[in-house]
Amino acid sequence: MHVNRALLGWGVFFLVLGSVPLAVRYGLVAASTFDRVWQLWPLLLIGAGLGLVLARTRAAVAGGLIVAATAGLMVGGLVVNGVGGFGGGFASCGGGDSGTPFADQRGTLGTEAAVSLQLDCGHVEVGSVDGASWSLSGESNDGQPPVVTERDDRLSVEARAREGGIRLGAGGGNQWTVELPRDARTSLELSVNAGSAVGAFDGMRLDRLQVSLNAGSATLDLGESLEVGSLEASANAGSLSVTLPATSMTGSVSANAGSIDLCVPDGIDLRIRLEDNALGSNNFAEAGLVEVGDTWTRAGVGSARIDLTASANLGSITLNPDDGCA
After folding, report:
1. Any residues with CB less than 8 A from the CB of 156 and at least 6 apart, and which?
2. Nearest CA to 17 among 227, 313, 326?
3. Which of 113, 143, 235, 282 could form a disulfide with 258 if both were Cys (CB 3.0 to 4.6 A apart)?
4. Angle formed by the axes of helices 61-81 and 42-53, nearest 10°
């Protein structure tokens, strides 16, 4: 019988990857067991080396299986813990204490505003303040502020390109504190790559909140927002926690090799339509939702209604986790 080595490797990868969240979910293994599974990365090199040394022999498949199993463990650890739980991670670029403060940036926005925050490597805290003014403060490796563009009631804050790219094990990443005005009706786009974010949008009116999280973690609190039109959130190899408001809204959430926690206030009429769920998991039944076709529902006691579309590919979506979404 001929065995396709490529398919065999992928099969082992998915078997190991799927086994990790399954074992954690049913209490067979503690999630903390995988906190430092990234330290197995030398096995990737060993497996590749074995594949070369044993090439053209029947044992050559062993190298590929080592690579596949190791990669499955590493990605599985990301699924259950997120990048933030990896004890500093394989490619840590966090702030440390070596950052240099940059000059504060300030400005004003009109009654309708579009804001874009794009952070690569570091940490950002987003908050709200009374009035029409916005501000940006923080640190960077060289004391230079990020690239800020403000015109026509549009604000863009983008991390400067780092010479040589992200340094493995390096400290001194970007550290931003952003305050947005409550007077402006805002559409916010937040993109975080290899970093972390914390956001609280008290008293804000958000037409649209778009969040893209890649290899990082974020905690967003919309509970005290006056209005949220729509939410679009994706967690790719990371962990995202979102507290939703007690007002009507629509949205979509996607967990791809990552995890999403959603906290929804009691009494809200909730509808979650589940799309892709390839090797994904959710706790909708345990949270009291009723499945009708591809939609999970919970009846509310008032007029507020939240409609969401959800997908989980090699990831998990948890509704109202026991320890909250803080």
Report:
1. 115, 116, 118, 147, 148, 149, 150
2. 313
3. 235
4. 160
| Other beta carbons less than 10 A from residue 167's beta carbon | 16
Q: Report d(CA 47, CA 40) in Å as an integer.
A: 11
For residue 56, the model assigns a pLDDT of 62
Output DSSP code: residue 54.
T
List, in order, residues 6 or more apart from 212 with CB less than 8 Å away: 189, 190, 191, 192, 233, 234, 236
**CA–CA gap between residue 149 and residue 158 (Å, rounded):** 9
Instruction: Count other C-beta atoms under 10 Å from residue 87's C-beta.
Output: 14
166-199 confidence digits (pLDDT tens): 433 334 479 999 999 999 999 999 999 878 999 9
Place of tokens 């990737």: 44
